[in-house]
Amino acid sequence: MEDAQFQYVEGQSRPGFASLLAAYEAESVAAVGTETCVLDVRYGPLERQTFDFFTARQKPRGTLAYFHAGYWQSRDKSTFRFIAPAYTAAGLNVALVNYPLCPTVSLPELIEAVQACIPAIRARAAADQAESLPLVLSGHSAGAHIAAELALSGVEDIAGVVAMSGIFDLAPLLATTLNQKLGLDAASAAACSPLHRVRALAAPALVVVGDEETPAFIAQSRRFHEALNKAGSRSSLLLVPQADHFSLLRRFSSPGSLLFDQVCTLSFKAP
Questions:
Q1: Residue 233 is part of a domain; what is its CATH number?
Q2: Could you tell me how far CA 116 lies from the centroid of its own chain?
Q3: Which of 91, 107, 197, 239 is deepest in the core (most CB within 10 A)?
Q4: Is this model's pTM higher than 0.90 or not?
Q5: Where are the alpha helices (DSSP H) in 158-257?
Q6: Domains identified in the chain, total number
Q7: Cα(250)–Cα(24) distance, rounded to whole angstroms?
Q8: Strand pairing of 158-164 and 205-210?
């Protein structure tokens, strides 16, 4: 296997990434204009402890929380608002979550800070409901790691976890430029790796990766999926054909795709 810098950084780049990101950003601006939403709902005192809440277009059957990518050190929820319309049309509330970034905070501090979003999202979803709604945690890349960390931390009454293109064993990142801002050593990388703390989860997990991603990313998803099932969890692995690290979000937000349908199945409240 090629070196970690290629596997986790250069090898994931694609020639069309810039145009794809521009499309995501344009669609995200449009989503704010067409959807019923409240932006920058605060869930803590730190600047980036906020989330956007998009309300289901019909009576909601659940809430999908989404944690964005960016290797814990970049990106913003505003780029990923394009995800919301497909799910609100299907009957789900969508909460797009920001979180403090490294190196302003350490990775353990980031995980501690983001935990406060769960009760805040539940409270916002319950504002117009007589009963609680299922909450599914989803995330992409670093966001998949965050969703997994939250699920393993003991957050109660989670309906499911969707971990897309995640990094669950952080040790390989020590040999990459990503660690300049993460500041991990062997001990802290192990402590922040969900793979090393897998246990039986009450909620089912959907572990997702594109078949055009690097071998290291595919292996990360396979290992996490296998560890979950070995621990007694109910995990499914979805290897999405003709999807890379970035185009995978198109499948995630496209009604009729297998990934979209499986996310909805996890998220819906039984009628």
A1: 3.40.50.1820
A2: 16
A3: 107
A4: yes
A5: 179-182, 186-191, 215-230, 248-252
A6: 1
A7: 9
A8: parallel
The whole domain housing 68 covers 4-266
226 Cβ partners below 8 Å, 6+ apart? none
Give the residue among 238, 159, 235 at the shortest CA–CA distance from 199.
Answer: 235
Residue 190 lies in a domain: yes
User: Percentage of the chain surpassing pLDDT 70?
Assistant: 98
pLDDT digits (tens, 9 = 90+) for 136-194: 999 999 999 999 999 999 888 899 999 999 999 999 999 999 999 999 999 999 999 99
| Residue 231, C-beta contacts closer than 8 angstroms, at least 6 positions apart | 198, 199, 200
pLDDT digits (tens, 9 = 90+) for 58-87: 999 999 999 999 999 999 999 999 999 999
Angle CA 103–173–162, to nearest 5? 85
**Which of 32-39's residues contact partners 24+ apart within 8 Å by CB, and which partners?**
32/81, 34/85, 35/84, 35/85, 35/88, 36/88, 37/81, 37/84, 38/124
180 falls within a domain: yes
In-domain check, residue 89? yes
